[in-house]
């Protein structure tokens, strides 16, 4: 091995000038190119001493630091540590964990949409703020979700074609909410409708009902 | 009287204070070239000498370095933008208008450069990957660094994506709607995904809910996107970049032997 | 991913010791210059082109068409042909995992550290094809998709008066199972017999992973073809998921 052979760090040997000169020597020495960095910082020396057995055996415990004669306690300690960490991680990430708020401040899922007479016969009325369509056929009413079953865009009622269309990926639904083209995997949700005491229509978006369900007035 | 330039520079540089900060001379000698690298904490990311073939511009196109530089650039412009942006559904869009109308000094330039540099970073990171593939630089012993690189690619996309919602405009709102609904379609873990009902996942306890902090995109979602975009993801990406660079340093640059 | 894994013999090197240069100034100067050029470019670009800002978010009225950021338009394009759980979650995860596997399944020792096609034809072909596919899908998404995600050529005027597409149909379940089994079974087994050498060099595990990823990539394209050519919605329908 060329270059300085010293057990002490290079910096302690002859002051900064010699240290600088050593740096230069290494750099100009192309055959030592890969070694110079390690030697400079003593890493290579340590590794070589460890490999050549210069470090006495007592310093390295018989079974390594992971397992030893007291391996039961070693393993038990690791198990305790890992299971504690796992429990905290579970608490952090699980569905009752940190990222899942316990209280939601969101609009009510149950709301009034107006008197039955507000909806002309044979029409689909879009209630953008509530994200529902109210469909009237004679004296029957249906509340159909605006949320596309594909990826949650708001579908659009195309009056002239008589279908619902999704602008995001082109899913198409018939007027009864059944999907027929595009990537949508299932029909639009239909929500529970009721009539309030003063005769107004109520839509409850927490209650999804069968497609055939209609509110008869 | 003509001042002696040499004397003045000597006065400035030949004293204890200057020498305590700058440890080597500036003359272009082989020794100083080396010291320039190894006595500088920032430049020390490089080895003091490199294989000539590894750093040819026609080999690397400087794509990795450029990606890192854009990351730093985004950090800087991002911090400046944070001074004038509020992650609140009633304020966010108005703040955007203020930036775009230069109600904030240099606001438009800041916003534009931040946005376009973000796009540029996606491009450079993709082409960096292509470069590394075509030169076979992921081969022994650099396999794991490629894996780290793939994670960094994903983080770059996520950084871009979380930033998309922050203006609270139609573009971002619907892009995030689509993106998070994809998470909602994850098998088992998402409420619309296959087998979700068998494991009891519904709209208010699935992975999408955890991302949005609610059942739809509202104030909590904006705040979450903001924190992920400004703090969590950059920190993560920064940590992985250190790993990425450190491994390059240890394995050496690729290139012909 | 390497068909031309040969005996492990080092490529004759040009010189025994690589020619080295000082990092300062040679490499640092290049990096500095690249950074400067980037700054100049981004400032000029940002001066002339404004970052997009649409109107205030409106949960009741999506953009038409609603496009994801361009780098996700490849995925959004896939979403037209597959259910979200596949196109949005499983496919991207497989792409990411597949990318991570590359260094471990490509055991060809040649072609490390220089551009070459001749020495690693299979690897370069497949990867470039995948890379290109991703960008072709992005270009389609950016330039060829109009209102309601209908197809418009870049030079066409966007209108709302386009014909409603015909209803889609799916394979019955037994046929779907048969088709998928035939595709993946034949795809896994036949190449192993046809290119015995390839199989032997890679070994069972690497060969399976490589072929699986390749078959998934090709299968994705085939499914797009089935949808566009024959209006097929699903190849396989089960009560729990559809492909």
Task: Give a quick rundown of the structure.
Chain A is of the alpha+beta class and 217 residues long. Chain A has four helices and eleven strands; from the N terminus they run H-H-H-H-E-E-E-E-E-E-E-E-E-E-E. In chain A, the strands form two sheets. In chain A, strands 1, 2, 3, 4, 9, 10 and 11 form a seven-stranded antiparallel beta sheet that branches. Chain A has a four-stranded antiparallel beta sheet with strand order 5-6-7-8, with no helix packed on it.
Ordered list of secondary-structure elements with their pairings:
The complex is a heterotrimer of chains A (217), B (257) and C (243).
Chain A: H1 15-28, H2 33-40, H3 43-51, H4 71-93, E1 110-114, E2 123-127, E3 132-137, E4 140-145, E5 156-158, E6 163-165, E7 172-173, E8 179-181, E9 190-195, E10 201-209, E11 215-216
Antiparallel strand pairs in A: 1-10, 2-3, 3-4, 4-9, 4-11, 5-6, 6-7, 7-8, 9-10
Chain B: H1 5-13, H2 16-21, H3 30-38, E1 49-51, H4 57-60, H5 63-82, H6 92-100, H7 107-134, H8 143-165, H9 170-184, H10 207-212, H11 219-251
Helix pairs in contact in B: 5-7, 6-7, 7-8, 8-9, 8-11
Chain C: E1 20-22, H1 23-48, H2 73-79, H3 84-105, H4 121-143, H5 173-194, H6 196-230
Helix pairs in contact in C: 2-3, 2-4, 3-6, 5-6
